[in-house]
């Protein structure tokens, strides 16, 4: 199966379509479709600069009734698959532009990949971030070797400042777009998955607004085997790709607003190249709930010992949510593309996921304020093998009869069945037990 026909535009002249040193534009002008040869060339060129990450059989396979292989792109040096496209992009720049340098304006995975690989290639690199950027991200970009400048209170402020600096100093302003060079670099994931897992039935990718990984990898996979199903997954809160495919052009969904938890999957659809390839080659795009993404993050932490962000976990979330029943009994690869979960979100995500998974629950009940009544409650919890995480007593504002105490208890259980057993045991002894719903 050919990706493009002869009369379609190819990437024969990648360097000629790159901005010249005097150019003030971004890479959007390089607007061409890609073919399999372009992806192969990218794989050869970047092989010494990025990891060939493992694609390993997962213990989650038995739980979901299929052979699941996880492509662990979060093991890249910057924790993101974006390194592949960024490195090929930087290596394709003219030497004069490499000498002058590049500039980016965000704290995204794309910017961190630019900061690292530009420094490794000895290209001067500047990262402009707004003042609200997490200190850890600023520190990381500086450790990679970039000159980081905080400017403005919004991303738009930092972008305007970066463009002005690029114009005044001859830097090339880079933003994540769907140039053929960038898509070819991302498409190398598809090549590796095909090599690492024989007899594949399907490959699942994160989608959303920045669907370059999905589009580029689909080009590689469909060329190698047209029968492999390529599936994209995005959030129900930001169904940007589905809206764009339905409209036939990239849509600007104002609801996206770069939601911090979702990262790049909540961004606007950034180009017609990715959209055209997705519409032509991708078999299915599904949407999942935030709850499913959180549980997917929990599963990856428990079963793979991997701390994954929402963008990286969203592919597995489609299996967690049962959105792809046709894959039961099949051999499926899931691309875990990113592991840059900020620490202040980690605790919140785990706590919420445990609650959604019916493994942390809270109840309240009223008991007599007499010696021994509290110990009887604790005996029931011990007998039911529930682990007490927190317990509080309220005496002053209890509205029931005098000399009683309201007990609010948070406990940890094994699973949904164990939670139901505990609930029945408590209701049998304390009929007025109130269970806090999720």
TrEMBL record:
Residue span(s) of domain ACT: 362-438
Protein keywords: Lyase, Pyridoxal phosphate
Gene Ontology biological-process annotations: isoleucine biosynthetic process; L-serine catabolic process; L-threonine catabolic process
Cofactor(s) recorded in Swiss-Prot or TrEMBL: pyridoxal 5'-phosphate
Gene3D superfamilies: 3.40.50.1100
GO molecular-function term, one example from the UniProt record: L-serine ammonia-lyase activity
PROSITE patterns: ACT (PS51671)
Protein name: L-serine deaminase
Provenance organism: Acrocephalus arundinaceus
Lineage: Eukaryota, Metazoa, Chordata, Craniata, Vertebrata
């Amino acid at each position: 199966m050919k990706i493009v026909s002869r009369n379609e535009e190819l990437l024969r002249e990648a360097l000629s379509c790159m901005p010249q040193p005097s150019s003030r534009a971004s890479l959007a002008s390089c607007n061409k479709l890609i073919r399999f040869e372009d992806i192969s060339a990218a794989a050869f060129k970047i092989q010494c600069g990025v990891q060939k990450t493992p694609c390993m059989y997962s213990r989650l396979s038995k739980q979901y009734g299929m052979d699941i292989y996880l492509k662990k792109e979060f093991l890249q040096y910057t924790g993101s698959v974006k390194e592949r496209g960024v490195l090929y992009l930087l290596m394709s720049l003219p030497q004069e532009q490499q000498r002058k340098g590049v500039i980016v304006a965000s704290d995204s995975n794309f910017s961190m990949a630019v900061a690292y690989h530009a420094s490794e290639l000895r290209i001067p690199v500047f990262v402009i971030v707004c003042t609200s950027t997490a200190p850890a991200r600023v520190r990381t970009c500086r450790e990679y070797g970039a000159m980081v400048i905080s400017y403005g209170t919004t991303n738009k402020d930092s972008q305007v400042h970066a463009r002005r600096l690029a114009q005044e100093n001859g830097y090339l302003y880079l933003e994540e777009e769907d140039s053929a060079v960038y898509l070819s670099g991302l498409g190398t994931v598809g090549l590796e998955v095909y090599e690492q897992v024989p007899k594949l039935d399907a490959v699942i990718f994160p989608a959303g607004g920045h669907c370059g990984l999905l589009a580029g990898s689909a080009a590689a996979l469909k060329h190698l085997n047209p029968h492999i199903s390529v599936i994209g997954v995005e959030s129900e809160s930001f169904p940007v790709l589905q809206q764009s495919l339905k409209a036939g052009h990239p849509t600007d969904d104002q609801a996206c607003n770069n939601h911090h938890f979702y990262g790049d999957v909540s961004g606007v659809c950034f180009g017609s190249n990715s959209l055209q390839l997705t519409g032509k080659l991708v078999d299915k795009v599904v949407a999942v709930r935030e709850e499913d993404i959180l549980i997917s993050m929990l599963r990856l932490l428990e079963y793979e010992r991997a701390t994954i962000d929402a963008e990286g976990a969203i592919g597995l979330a489609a299996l967690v949510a049962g959105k792809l029943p046709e894959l039961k009994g099949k051999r499926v690869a899931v691309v875990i593309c990113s592991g840059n979960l900020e620490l202040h979100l980690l605790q919140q995500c785990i706590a919420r996921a445990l609650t959604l998974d019916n493994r942390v629950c809270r109840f309240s009940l009223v008991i007599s304020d007499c010696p021994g009544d509290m110990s009887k409650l604790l005996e029931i919890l011990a007998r039911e093998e529930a682990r007490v995480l927190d317990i509080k007593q309220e005496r002053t504002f209890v509205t029931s009869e005098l000399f009683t105490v309201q007990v609010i208890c948070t406990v940890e259980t094994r699973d949904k069945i164990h939670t139901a057993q505990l609930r029945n045991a408590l209701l049998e002894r304390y009929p007025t037990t109130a269970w806090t719903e999720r």
